[in-house]
Amino acid sequence: MSTASTRLPEGRYGRTADARADRTLKIVGTVLGAALLALVGWFAYHYVGQNKISGQVITFEASRDTVKVHLEVRKDADATGYCTVRSQSADGAEVGRADFRFGGNATRIDEVVTLRTTAQGTTAELLGCHAN
């Protein structure tokens, strides 16, 4: 004895409700994915495009109550702003923090700045640079 098939013949009755739902979900997912990608791109563009000053610590030299930090700052020619530097002690406590201002027409500034500390600093960390 043969068993009867419960499946409908393919192509005879059009798409099933599951196929229509799958297609709708694919379209909605594609649109949402494209919107998310555009949003991330917009934020990235404005973050990178608006940051007119960047810097890095080249070297530092710590003494009992100061840390001399060699900073290299790159900026647009007309940009003014500041970079924030901090120092920590061996146990991780912050012993000094200061903002150093930069201006002028130079696009690259290579300068040694002195950070006063409350105790012996063991690090010099650039927290960030910001345009005014």
From TrEMBL:
Entry keyword annotation includes Transmembrane: yes
Transmembrane segments: 25-45
Protein name per the record: DUF4307 domain-containing protein
Domain of life: Bacteria
InterPro entries linked to this entry: DUF4307 (IPR025443)
Keywords: Membrane, Transmembrane, Transmembrane helix
